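Input sequence (311 aa), recorded before submission:
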Amino acid sequence: MINEYLTDLERIKLTKLSYEELSVGQEIVIGEKYLGKCVKKIYQKDGLRAFIILNDSEVMMLFKGSYGIIKGTPTTWRDEWLNTNLPVLLALVSKKPQIPSQLKSAAQVLNQTMKEYPDQQFFLYGHSLGAINLQYALANCHFTRQLGAAYLYEGTNIWSLLNKQERHRVGRIRQRIFNYVDIYDPVTLGITATHQMVGKLCYIDSPQLTPIKQHLWGGYQFDEQGQVKLKAVDEQFLRVSKEERNLVEQANSWLKLFEKRTPNTEWKTFLSTSLARFTSTNKNSSWAELLNALPKDSFLIKDKIKSNLEH
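Predicted structure, token format:
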């Protein structure tokens, strides 16, 4: 099987194709390796986007991540951020598991595709939102014997949103799921050295860059064979993990206060002051750098998120 012989660098190049406009019938070649043909493009109303690549024995599914605020359009901002990424973040900090539509669509698409190709081995790839969607899809996969491997890059840890049955399911296939985490990427919220994550932790040995570069594989370093440099969990990993837990707890406290008050000028000032205090205390954190870039009334988007979840 060709996917088993890809290097880490080649797998990342393949995953990056999820952000391109592949055509049905297009031959997919990474380096000198022919992977197969794109046989289907998936576009769901809730914004889920994926590509299916097929060869004689394998199916590859590429789940697209978020375009981002800068490159995105009003539609991608709505589908990827307002309706999916931010609701996931809200569910994590509020400790109220609410699953956005796009995650559920990913599970449906994966199961349907596996049903269509019962004799093929599946290799799954996703970055950012694509990795989030894949985590939920794998937790609800009904055809796990067909899973060859899944490669998840820089996605938020949604373990706390999964129920007992979903956690048990991904636990049984943990050895076939590779979850790549750069601790300097603020999107990888919820990193942990425990088994409370979807898949095996692959801890990237990376330098600290700007949050955007960090998120786009900028900190990944490769050896001469194209394998990414990893390292064992260290004090830095544990420190960042603790900082993120503190962030979630602080955000949960803010959210509880927010729900009890009308967002007037005095309340906005309180939120801005609290945010400034948090980022000052954690000034070396990638999250602090990202939070400093937010508008002062960012928390007001919470009502829009809640409204989208309810409809």
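Checked by second reader. The two ends are 43 Å apart (CA to CA).
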